[in-house]
Each structure stands twice: as C-alpha cells, then as structure tokens.
Description:
The protein is mostly beta strands. The protein has one helix spanning about 75-85; strands at about 10-15, 30, 35-40, 50-60, 60-65, 95-100, 105-125, 135-140, 145. Strand 6 and strand 7 form a beta hairpin. About 10% of the residues are buried.
Amino acid sequence: MLSDYPAPAFHFRVEFAHTPGLDAAFQEVSGIGPEMETEDVAEGGENRFVHRLPKTVKHPRLVLKRGIGAVASPLVKWCKKVLENDFATPVKPTSVLVTLLDENGLPLRVWSFLNAFPVKWEVDAFNSTKNEVAIESIELSYQYSKRVV
C-alpha cells in the first residue's frame, strides 16, 4: 500500500468521535509513539551485564496544533467544558483517530487513541514583530493507543 515510500507527513486527518467530520483541521500532530518502560535487575554474582525487563507501556500526550479556533467550535467548547468548568460536570472522554493519507486521500496509516480528554490548552506567544497566525495547542491524555492500519 505504501507505493510512494516514504509517505509524506503533510496530508493527514484528525477525527473526534464526539464531533465526526467537524472542526478537526490541524497544522501539526505530535506525540504518536508508545514507549516500553523497563526495569533493570542485577543478577547476583554476574557483573558483566544487567537484565533489562519489560515493565509497562507509557503513552505520551497527543499534541494537536492549529490556528486559534472559533468560539462556536465544538472542540473549543469541549476544551472549555473540561478545563474551565471546575469539574461541575464529569469529564467525557472520546476516541480520536489520526490518519495519514496518500495523494488520493486514502488511509496509509491509522492510529486510534481511546478515552482521550484535554489536559492542556495553550496559546503560543503573541509577537508584534512577526506576521504569523495565532496558534493554539491542545494536549490530550488518553488511556491507550493502537495502530489500526
């Protein structure tokens, strides 16, 4: 399926289960990549090496960057509800799909992030000497991820 290897990183799609097809245009997605934590165990009498045993898989935060969203944006409303509501209502996690697309818009790779919710919502610095778009970053924590395709 990867006929044009290596795949370009600029053609991708982000989908939220609670707002399918809406409000998901991002300029950058990062944080895809689980990592195995290990535990070092020294064997008595053997000083040449240490056994490195698998412990658990940790998942970094999924970071989404885009121009600052409109006030009426469903994603902005969800972030506000979670991060500015003092837990007056329960946090409602959602599934997120990140899809790397080929030149025809067909999926090359798909990653699924389950039970995701915003944990950080940050706006990049404003600078009067630069002509740039105001960027917001939304960091999502999630239960686990898996590569679907």
